Amino acid sequence: MPKEPLIAFFPEASFGAALNCIGIAQVLKGLGAKPVFICHGHFQGIFAEYGFAEFPIPAQTKLSAAEHQHYWETFIEKNIPYFDQTPLEQIDSYVAPAWEAIIDTAIEAEKPLQQLLARLRPDVIVLDNVVTFPAISNAGCPWVRMVSCAETELPDAAVPPYLSGCAASDAAAREAFVSRYNAAVAPAHARFSRFLESCQHPLHPPGQFLEDSPHLNLLLSPTPVRYNRKQPLAPERYVYLDGCVRSEAPYVVPEFPAHNEAPLIYVSFGSLGAADVQMMKRLIATVAGLPYRFLINVGAYREMYDSVPDNVYLDSWFPQPAVLRECRLFVHHGGNNSFCEALYFGLPSVVIPYCWDGHDNARRAEEVGVGAYLPRYAEPLAALPEALRQLLADEALAARLQGISATMQSNPGSVNAAQAILALTE
């Protein structure tokens, strides 16, 4: 019997990357491969719930899994005041410190990851992260870069700078952002370069922390929101995906004491955005008087909400793809997974970003006309009721989104990704 190809996924410790990879792994399993997941210790259990073997990276510190999780919760909670800043202002307050923390995790993981990969001996490694791990490129097998952030992560003269939220046509804003960004992250970049040198790994250009794979790069960027790049990406090495939506059991919508027949709207700002409990409480107060039903993801903070309006249902987690099938509109933070899933299910988006590539996806949603961009630095909750009303009443947009949905669902990105990954094993 031929050996099952062993495909090792290594997503960063975030639900967006993890769940995106699960969608691809589900298809790979159906095609006869053996997907497994390498994960940070505090992210154990996510992949096992979907039936996949997990291999946690042994921690070199004395922190427990719970303490690691608390570290990132504390990091986010400390940075909540910066979420109301412009992308340009966040470079110094949030982005540069975030890169320092991300680099810490890469350096800490290097030796344990080397040992784990030598033991697993995978046929292909799929990396869904924002930083280089030299152990992966030195593992002796093909590796795949999964770009599950915005397409802006891959630089191009015709594409806005990564994390900038700039319009493609605003040359002055783009130049100002790049100049400030490169200066702010220079110390982190220099430290990371010293680490790469110690691993005999090639260095990256200024401002970049991850290289493209020489084997295969997968971009989670659906057709309607892609950019016309000045330097087109070589199709044999760069494959665009129309979303990588995982399979979930059907979701049964709960009964609502009020507006039980009204349009259903899903609200989620991801596991990190849920940490801003005060903002979430203001949002709930804003929607309490609207003639719609709301499912709202409040993450690990459910016990902090003691009063819930009759048209609102809160939970700490929702099976997002199954929920979106039942909804008319999606309010989210611009995470690439959420943005793609909104398009996959034909829903308009109201994007209220707070950091990272959420700014880029919010701008792109507005540019291509598939949603509304409500910046947090411009009183987004005041504008939310009218944005919801306009998007729900736009019949032409609804028809266009249904066409996008039909196209994406007829050509699933998870299938295309799985086939491209398996081709590396032949």
TrEMBL record:
Superkingdom of origin: Bacteria
CDD domains linked to this entry: GT1_Gtf-like (cd03784)
PANTHER family xref list: STEROL 3-BETA-GLUCOSYLTRANSFERASE, STEROL 3-BETA-GLUCOSYLTRANSFERASE UGT80A2
Alphabetically ordered keywords of this record: Transferase
GO molecular-function terms, A-Z: hexosyltransferase activity; UDP-glycosyltransferase activity
Swiss-Prot/TrEMBL GO biological process terms: antibiotic biosynthetic process
Pfam families, per the entry: EryCIII-like_C
Domain Erythromycin biosynthesis protein CIII-like C-terminal: 301-423
Protein name: Glycosyl transferase family 1
